[in-house]
Fold this protein.
Amino acid sequence: MLINCVKYEFSKIIARKKYLFIMVLEIVLVTLLGSLNWQSFDISGTILKFDLPNLYFNFLPVLSTFLLPVTIFMLVSDTVSLEFENNTIKNIFLRPASRFNIYLGKNLAITLYVLINLMIVYLASLVLKVAYTMSFDSVLEGFLAYAITIIPLFAFVVFCSFVACKVKSSSLTMFLLLICYLLMAFLSAYSSAIRSVLFVNYIGYYKFFIGNILPIKYILNSTLLILSNVLIFFILGYLIFDKRDV
Amino acid sequence: MVLEVDNITKLYKKNRGAMNVSFSIGEGEVFGLLGPNGSGKTTVMKIVTGLLRAKEGRVKIFGYDIVDDTQRALADVGGLIEAPASIGFLSAYENLKIVSNFYPDCMGIDELLDMVGLLKVKNDKVSKFSLGMKQRMGIALAVINKPKLLVLDEPTNGLDIEGTVDIRNMISNLAKEQKTTVLISSHLAAELQQMCSKVGVMQDGRLLETEVMDFVLENYPSLEDYFLHTVRKSREGLGYAN
């Protein structure tokens, strides 16, 4: 039944034009930046490079720390809060599926959409890189980086769903998630202790996997931290979701 | 028994909701819950379908508990509770398509749309539908799995005369031809009188009485008179008249 819940949620996500538009927007953005072959792009002191040989590595931070989190906010607001707000949640609650499967299905459908986004952007940047440089260098590393980024982003989806379960309005959910994200970024910048336990700081987790040496200790620590965040926020979110009346 | 409702209680502010409601429905019965607005009918319907969790009491559908075994309890159930829950940005066809995944053996989507009179507009977005068309869409979503138990809360709300007759005939046909058990609520006695084999009278969150429709019509001029008699009797029993 879980697979049916995922199918149900995913069908709704891709039926909304804005989510197809976001995918197109990301492809256009990576193509534009790659085609311009920017060596440096100064935004308030931060130098971003979009040079073609390393396009997918350079674009991934923009994607995973800005574009995808905002997309996740929208997805979670639509898939969880809005459904309670306009009572369309009844449509799935009246189907033969447990609330656990429904809740997990929502989280997995959003994660699936995010994964597809990552893969599409990877493919777009790969095509650009190969077309312009005729080089297949670090193709596998690039794929690995994009594929592994889904792990911290899944934790992010689970956290956002937890927040959305508690809030009755979709616009308020969007606003709260944005505030939470900025607050986490702010706290992380000022305290290393907080930085080490907040899962949002592990979005660059893929970097552990693409060097010459695998830092097993760091990988294990970060994996356990991400996993514990997933478990905590999933359980809390599910408990709220399960108790919600329609 | 198809449905067993055992002593369910769910109260909101100002003691509204449902209190100690118990009844059961056998196979092929059309059970009507009759009561004014705010009498607790929708609360009962929501608890029966698992949308609300009762504070006390239990609901079993085909022997499966609605809270502990939701998946099996709802496998052969169709429901339309309050306003239809169709997805506005999807077409009528897409709405039924995404729900059909949940059932291994469900009705053909075109056949279903034809049955509820929406075949011509199957590719139109549901958000553009009139209230009556949305209600028909809700009925289609409720019967897609050829349910053995159909739970309908005020299904003719917002429908014009023609729509009301269509829906009433549809429910009667399902009960007669496919032996579907139906639990239906309404504040209109005349509507339930035409469809139900058994009726329960609700007032102030309590189920005052349940009775077989044949008995009601043999002993009272109409279901409306039976309802008024039952409500007055209850008020007198509680020590106040009218």
